[in-house]
């Protein structure tokens, strides 16, 4: 029986079904700059960090399946046809009795991510399935009330935030606005015929929706409570269909007031909505085609999945580094999705890849961290960034799988003044400049085939 469930979920993870669920979220054009100076200050600090981690961990980690979506009744979902929908949901909710991560070690997570060169983190406190990865006062459907209840780290959020705080990270909490376990969102009186949306008529049952709004407000204030969790820098909200425009108004002004009373300067990321509560935008599983003149972040998983799965398809370190180059050159940040195992660890296969990314960043991070976009940000094979004072430019060469190591690089614009240096090896390169056209020669053996690298040079005053 269990195998049939797994087969059903495996089918739901096909590339087609990922596209069908609207999983690739483009940036919204309606960006509104914050007006509060302390929010602007934190936003500027966040933009300097460039590279972070998004940690998905929950019920779905036990069998290693797609996060939450398997209990949704939308057409793209495939399940075991020998089971009723309610039987499947009962099995899924029952995973709460099995999630017992006795090897849970957030200090290992934080150490691995710091070694990977990451500077900020976002932890999934609650996904759409409604299961809380924190000890909520407002809901018993929590890791702190089931198999893990006797563990001293049962308030997982508290342990995770402290571990990353100890490593100097900027701290973020992911929270799902929809809660499919809540009777005030998916009410059992009605079928879930409206897919991911609230399944009853809010106009007919306003008191129930008002109760849900209060519940959401309470939990968002709870996970930003400084008395329980210390400082929190980012509140990263998912489930963009829960919004005023979709007739599911949860009163974001009231929420923003409450969470910023707890955490002055808090960045609020009400994804895909636009307006004053989407302080930075979050294109998902993609990189925008061009530079964007306001704060944004591509969120992309290290494998094909956000959470842990038993047979992941990993991205190579070179692929991640090359994506980071493009994202930063276009003015954004990259948050990389990593899913801890059901036991509570970052698995060795992920660690190896993250370590390789970290080694590259330790050697080449000058071209990534604390940089700003340049007007001429792409030429030939190269991406470009600049130091904040504009005096130093960086040329970023992404991985070219299947190609030999380059012996010569050419670009137009971003003319160097003086020497061009191969970062990491501090190697001065032979350079030729003819008008706006630049050519540098790379000595044999200075770079390897398929290896991303970066160059540094002073900017011309032209």
General description of the model:
The protein has eleven helices and 15 strands. It has helices at residues 2-12, 15-20, 37-49, 85-93, 106-115, 156-166, 206-223, 226-229, 252-262, 317-329, 348-364; strands spanning 51-55, 120-126, 170-176, 234-238, 267-270, 297-301, 333-338, 371-379, 382-387, 392-397, 408-412, 416-422, 427-434, 437-441, 453-459. The chain has 462 residues and is an alpha/beta fold. The strands form two sheets. Strands 8-9-10-15-12-13-14-11 form an eight-stranded antiparallel sheet, covered by helices on one side. Helix 5 (106-115) packs parallel to helix 11 and helix 10 packs across helix 11.
Brief characterization of the structure:
With 462 residues, the protein is of the alpha/beta class. The chain has helices at residues 2-12, 15-20, 37-49, 85-93, 106-115, 156-166, 206-223, 226-229, 252-262, 317-329, 348-364; strands spanning 51-55, 120-126, 170-176, 234-238, 267-270, 297-301, 333-338, 371-379, 382-387, 392-397, 408-412, 416-422, 427-434, 437-441, 453-459. It starts with a helix and ends with a strand.
């Amino acid at each position: 029986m269990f195998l049939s469930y797994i087969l059903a979920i495996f089918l739901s993870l096909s590339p087609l079904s990922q596209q069908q669920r609207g999983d690739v979220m483009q940036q919204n054009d309606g960006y509104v700059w914050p007006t509060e100076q302390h929010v602007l200050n934190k936003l500027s600090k966040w933009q300097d960090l460039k590279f972070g981690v998004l940690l998905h961990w929950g019920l779905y980690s036990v069998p290693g399946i797609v996060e939450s979506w398997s209990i949704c009744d939308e057409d793209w979902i495939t399940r075991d046809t020998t089971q009723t929908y309610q039987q499947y949901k009962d099995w899924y909710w029952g995973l709460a009795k099995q999630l017992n991560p006795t090897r849970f070690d957030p200090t290992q997570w934080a150490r691995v991510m710091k070694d990977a060169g990451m500077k900020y983190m976002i932890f999934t406190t609650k996904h759409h399935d409604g299961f809380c990865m924190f000890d909520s006062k407002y809901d018993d459907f929590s890791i702190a009330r089931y198999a893990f209840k006797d563990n001293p780290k049962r308030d997982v959020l508290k342990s995770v935030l402290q571990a990353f705080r100890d490593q100097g990270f900027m701290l973020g909490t992911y929270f799902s606005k929809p809660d499919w376990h809540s009777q005030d969102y998916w009410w059992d009186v009605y079928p879930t015929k409206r897919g991911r949306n609230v399944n009853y008529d809010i106009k007919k049952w306003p008191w129930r929706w008002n109760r849900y709004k209060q519940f959401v407000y309470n939990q968002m204030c709870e996970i930003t409570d400084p008395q329980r969790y210390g400082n929190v820098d980012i509140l990263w909200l998912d489930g963009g269909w829960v919004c005023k425009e979709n007739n599911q108004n949860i009163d974001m002004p009231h929420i923003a007031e409450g969470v910023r009373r707890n955490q002055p300067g808090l960045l609020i990321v009400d994804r895909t909505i636009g307006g004053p509560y989407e302080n930075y935008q979050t294109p998902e599983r993609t990189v925008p085609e061009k530079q964007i003149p306001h704060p944004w972040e591509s969120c992309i998983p290290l494998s094909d999945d956000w959470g842990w799965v038993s047979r992941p398809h990993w991205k190579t370190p070179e692929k991640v580094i090359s994506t980071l180059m493009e994202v930063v050159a276009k003015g954004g940040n990259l948050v990389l999705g990593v899913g801890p195992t059901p036991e509570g660890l970052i698995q060795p296969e992920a660690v190896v890849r993250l370590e390789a990314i970290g080694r590259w960043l330790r050697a080449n991070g000058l071209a990534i961290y604390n940089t700003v976009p340049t007007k001429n940000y792409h030429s030939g094979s190269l991406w470009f960034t600049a130091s904040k004072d504009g005096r130093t430019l960086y040329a970023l060469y992404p991985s070219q799988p299947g190609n030999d190591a380059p012996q010569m690089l050419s670009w137009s614009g971003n003319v160097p003044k003086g020497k061009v240096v191969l970062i990491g090896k501090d190697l001065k390169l032979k350079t030729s400049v003819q008008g706006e056209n630049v050519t540098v020669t790379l000595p044999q053996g200075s770079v390897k085939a398929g290896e991303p690298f970066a160059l540094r040079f002073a900017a011309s005053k032209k």
